[in-house]
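User: Hey, my collaborator sent me this sequence without any context and asked if I could get a structure. I don't really work with proteins. Can you help?
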Amino acid sequence: QDQVAESGGGSVQAGGSLRLSCTASGFAIGNICIAWFRQAPGNQRDWVTYVTTGGTIQYSDAVKGRFEISKDNAENVAYLQMNNLRPEDTAMYYCAARTRAGCGTRPDHYNYWGQGTQVTVSS
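Assistant: No problem. I've predicted the 3D structure and written it out in structure-token form, which is a compact way to encode the shape of the chain:
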């Protein structure tokens, strides 16, 4: 079954770090666009970052310089390293995969989603 699944969320204090993992099944993560989104209660699902098949990476302004996306093609896992976390980073974080060409910043660009992992940052 084709799917992605996140892990690694948790609770940290402001200034701390977390690393999220996104494990793909049924397709090779090196051949697809992988993105991370986040959604706080009452808010829309916001794009955080993506990495293209060619390795091009983009970040939202909210996380640029603090978060880093990477992929381990051999392990079929993508990561989101989150440093210098802030209370406003608190959200459910989702991994998304796009198996068609290209990447995007809207949720409807992606056809596979994980179940989400909660990140809570306290001040």
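In plain terms: The mean pLDDT is 96. You can pass these tokens on to your collaborator as they are.
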